[in-house]
Design goal:
alpha/beta, Rossmann fold, six-stranded mixed β-sheet, 3 helices, 21% helix, binds inosinic acid
Amino acid sequence: MVPQRPYAIDEMISAKAIAARVEALAKEITRAFRGTDKLIVVGLLRGSFVFIADLVREIDLPVEVDFLEASSYGNAMESSREVRILKDLRGEIAGRDVLVVEDIVDTGFTLHHVVNLLRSREPKRLEVCALLDKPSRREVPIKATWTGFEIPDEFVVGYGIDFAQRNRNLPYIGKVRFTEDGSVG
Ligand code: IMP
């Protein structure tokens, strides 16, 4: 689906700022999981694919990567509040160290659902790293162990994050601003 209204994208977080923050997060994660025989890094598709790629390359531990896809937004700008698992993990996580990697925590419904599901599989340890957090939007009380940036209540795109499947390939994070003149970007 293509967005019906024309929009522009204003840069909010530069590629350079993201890279610096990813490096710092990876250092903290490496320290926290030091001694693990293998960390299973679980990326929530599709929004986390760029973030997880950068993050794992900065984590100085043996890692395994797996993916899980949960639906919440569909193609709209509002959370459906009903979370469905569209693609489950390939591997077992029982007794393992797990790091869930999420793009944005918004209402919190997605993360809450995913964390509950994964905890029911009895990992040894489960932590969450979210690139972005919009605390003012929270409806379910949940917080990531590590957060890249807290942002205001804006709809953002880029660095893997989409608006109706568009703009995932922007190297920075930008906010969507609807325009009347039809300019995009
Ligand atoms: P939640 O269940 O409301 O916390 O929604 C989390 C998911 O909604 C994120 O993983 C994103 O895929 C999507 N989402 C939330 N805010 C935005 C946004 O500003 N832009 C694009 N997707 C978003």
